[in-house]
Structure formats: structure tokens, C-alpha cells
Amino acid sequence: MTPATLLADDFTAPGPSIFDFPPIFAGGPSWLTKPVLFAVVGAVLVIIFAWSAFAKPQLVPRGMQNIGEKGYEFVRDQVARPFLGKDAERWMPLLLSLFFLILLWNFFGVIPLIQMPIASHIAFPFVFAITIYVIKIYLGIKHQGFIGYFKNMMFPPGLPKPIYVLLAPIEFMSNLIIAPFTHAVRLFANMFAGHLILAFFSAVGFWFLFDKLTPLGAPLGVLGVGMTIAMTGFEMFIQFLQAFLFTLLAAMYIGGSLHSDH
Amino acid sequence: MAIAATLLAAEGAENPLIPHTYELVVGSFAFLVVFLVVGKILTPRIQKTLAERTEVIEGGIKKAEDLQVEAQQTLEQYRAQLAEARQEAARLREEAREQGAQIKAELREEAQAEARRLVEAAHAQIEADRQQAVAQLRAEIGRLSVELAGRIVGESLEDEARQRRTVDRFLEEIEARPEAVR
């Protein structure tokens, strides 16, 4: 909460400034902020989880392996296979890493005391989106040829010739410029907005029940707390959905580059 | 975006659409390490295990199917053998019955033959006895008749040959009369 909110007599909703963090400790390096710290913590936790689940896999799964396998099978059956078909297994390492890391980073948005969705800082979704973008173009040129890749992308066969005047630039824009941007921004914006919503309702609850407890304001505070709880549940769903969607789009882009069937 | 920018300016916050360079670096590093450990080291392990499990399960199913087929075959075999055994038993029973009947018939035949033989032997014996009796009687009757006739007539018939002829003729005459013999 900004100092302005605390000092003013009227309630002020939390703004985008809640995403700005100073260094964790005074005098520390400016890059060592909360999102950076928890990005690393998240990566370490994903590695620990995956290690405990997959390091010594058993034919009959026990404990963590069960959970890990559920995750693996989810990504394989819902993401990899529908878009990559027989190449699914080959791309599972990338897709699984992507899914696990994004999911845990997203869940940090509702985990008490952390309460910081890492992807609400656009740099992190950008890293993923750019990686996928590079892989997409590399695979496209490798599998369809330099000319073929752009020809398949911009001039899909079977349309009347004048249409291409319109279609070719649109396809070029959509595939090479807009797609990576929307890929990253979709994840970022969902986490950003979700965090803002949670911050808003918790601020309402805190303000009207603690900071300025009045008979008139109290019900509003209770409503704020109730909404915070409800939105936390909803947010968990969105966090999962966005991790799934991001991975799904990655698989779709990779699949599209491997097979020029459209 | 223009609105957002204005809003941000008003709040004095950073533009959330501009990535921090250090976050790009940390994000790339985190993603790379996760990819190397989770993707490159761990994922192949679980893939291998899942493939092995599939094989084991498929093998198990195959084995179970084979066993079931085998069991079915054995059952069929046993049923066939049972049916065969039943047929065999029925056949043996039938054969035994036939043999029994045959033996019974043979025994009866033999007994009847034996009986016939005994009866015939008895008949022959009786006939022989009768013949002997007739022969003895003939001689006796001849002698007695001659003696009787000699006594009645008072003269001895010297010529024995004539005497015998006379007796024979007399007896033949008697034999020629059926009522005299019976």
C-alpha cells in the first residue's frame, strides 16, 4: 500500500505501484527484489519437487512420484499429444519444465506470506514467450525451408488470389509480431489483474475492519474479506488455467512449425 | 495503454509493461536451470519408467490372455476326454451286455445239445436192449414153440434146419401182422 493510502482519510484502492519492490534489505543490490528472490525460490522448488518425484522412478509409483506423474500425464495428454502427435514425447522436457515453473510461479500469488505472482512482472512471461518464439521460427525454417516457412505462413493454398493481398500481411503480423506479444501478455495481464483484485479486496477488508473501523464501514469490510476469500479460490483456478494455456500455446506454435499442414 | 500510462504517471509507479533487465536475466537463468534439470535429466527418466510400465502392463495382459486361452484349451480337452470316456464306457457296457447274451445263448445251446445227446444215447441204449431182448425172445420162443409143438405133435422134428426154417417162417408171419408185435 502506498503511503498516500495510509495517510489519507479516504480509502484509496491499491494501484500498479503495489508491483514495485525495493531491494529486500536496505542497502542491498537494486536487483535483489521480492519477485527476483521468489523467482529463484520457485525454480529451486520446482527442481526439488521434480527431483523427489522423478529422480528414481519406480514401476509402481509411490508418494511424490504419483503427483509428478499426474502432472506429467496432464501435460502429455492435454497439451503435447493434441498438438504434437508423435513428436509429443520429444517436446515433453520443454513443455513440462515450462508448465511446472509457470504453475508454481503463479501459485505464489495466493501462497500466504509470498503472495506475489511472479508472472505479474512482464519480464518473466517475456523470457518464456521469446524462447518459444525463437524455437518456433527455427523449427519452421528447418522443417519447411526459409521460403517454404514464410510461404506456408503467408500464402495458405486454396484461396482466391486477391485475398492474399489482405491475408499475407495479416498472417505475417499475427504470426511473427503479435503472437509472441500476446503469448506473454496474456499470462502477465491475468496475473497482474488477479493480484490487483486480491490486493483491492484485502485492502477494503483491512481498511474498514482495522484502520477505520466504523459501524457503517464494518459490513463493507466483511464483504471485502469475503470477496478476498472467494477471489483467492477463483484466482487459483486462473493461475492453473493460464499456466495450462501458456504451455498449450507453446505446443501449438511448435506443432505448427513442425508440420506445415495449414 | 495510454490510459495505463497516465494512471501510472499519476501514481508514480513504474510501467508494468517495461521489463526490468535484471528480471529478464534472472528469469532466463531460472528457466534454463529448470529446463536442464527437470527437462533434460528428470523427464527422460519418468518417460523411460512410463514406457517400461506400459510394457509390463501390456506383457501382463498378454500373459493373462495367453493363460486364459491355455485354460480354455485345457478345459475343452478335458471335456472332449470326458465325452470320449463316457462313450467308451457306454460302448463297453453294450459290449458286455452283448457278450453276456452271447454266452448265455451258447450255454443254453450247449446244454440243449448235451440233453439231446443224452436222450439219444438213452434211445440207442433202449433200442439196443430191445433188439437184444427181441433176439433172445426170438430164440427162446423158437425153442419153446418147437418143444411145445414136439410135445403136442409127439414127434421130434429131427431135421434141425427144417425146424429152424419153420420157426422163422412162423415168426415172420407174426411180424407181418402189426397188431401181433405191438
From TrEMBL, chain A:
GO cellular component: plasma membrane; proton-transporting ATP synthase complex
Compartment(s) of residence: Cell membrane; Membrane
Principal place of residence: membrane
Function: Key component of the proton channel; it plays a direct role in the translocation of protons across the membrane.
Transmembrane segments: 36-55, 91-116, 122-141, 162-181, 187-209, 216-234, 240-258
Molecular function terms, GO-annotated: proton-transporting ATP synthase activity, rotational mechanism
Family affiliation: Belongs to the ATPase A chain family.
Pfam family, one: ATP-synt_A
Protein origin, superkingdom: Bacteria
Keyword Secreted: no
Name the record gives this protein: ATP synthase subunit a
Membrane topology qualifier: Multi-pass membrane protein
Assigned keywords, A-Z: ATP synthesis, Cell membrane, CF(0), Hydrogen ion transport, Ion transport, Membrane, Transmembrane, Transmembrane helix, Transport
Tagged with keyword Cell membrane: yes
From TrEMBL, chain B:
Gene3D superfamilies the UniProt entry points to: F1F0 ATP synthase subunit B, membrane domain
Pfam families: ATP-synt_B (PF00430)
TM region positions: 22-43
Domain of life the protein comes from: Bacteria
Keyword Transcription carried by entry: no
InterPro entries: ATP_synth_B-like_membr_sf (IPR028987), ATP_synth_b/b'su_bac/chlpt (IPR002146), ATP_synth_F0_bsu_bac (IPR005864), ATP_synthase_B_chain (IPR050059)
Location of this chain's protein in the cell: Cell membrane
Chief location category: membrane
GO cellular component annotations of the record: plasma membrane; proton-transporting ATP synthase complex
Molecular-function GO terms, alphabetical: proton-transporting ATP synthase activity, rotational mechanism; proton-transporting ATPase activity, rotational mechanism
Keywords (A to Z) from UniProt: ATP synthesis, Cell membrane, CF(0), Coiled coil, Hydrogen ion transport, Ion transport, Membrane, Transmembrane, Transmembrane helix, Transport
Ion transport in keyword set: yes
Topological relation to the membrane, as annotated: Single-pass membrane protein
Coiled coil regions, renumbered to chain: 61-124
Function: Component of the F(0) channel, it forms part of the peripheral stalk, linking F(1) to F(0). F(1)F(0) ATP synthase produces ATP from ADP in the presence of a proton or sodium gradient. F-type ATPases consist of two structural domains, F(1) containing the extramembraneous catalytic core and F(0) containing the membrane proton channel, linked together by a central stalk and a peripheral stalk. During catalysis, ATP synthesis in the catalytic domain of F(1) is coupled via a rotary mechanism of the central stalk subunits to proton translocation.
Oligomer and partners: F-type ATPases have 2 components, F(1) - the catalytic core - and F(0) - the membrane proton channel. F(1) has five subunits: alpha(3), beta(3), gamma(1), delta(1), epsilon(1). F(0) has three main subunits: a(1), b(2) and c(10-14). The alpha and beta chains form an alternating ring which encloses part of the gamma chain. F(1) is attached to F(0) by a central stalk formed by the gamma and epsilon chains, while a peripheral stalk is formed by the delta and b chains.
Family assignment from sequence similarity: Belongs to the ATPase B chain family.
Record's protein name: ATP synthase subunit b
Taxonomic lineage: Bacteria, Bacillati, Actinomycetota, Actinomycetes, Streptosporangiales
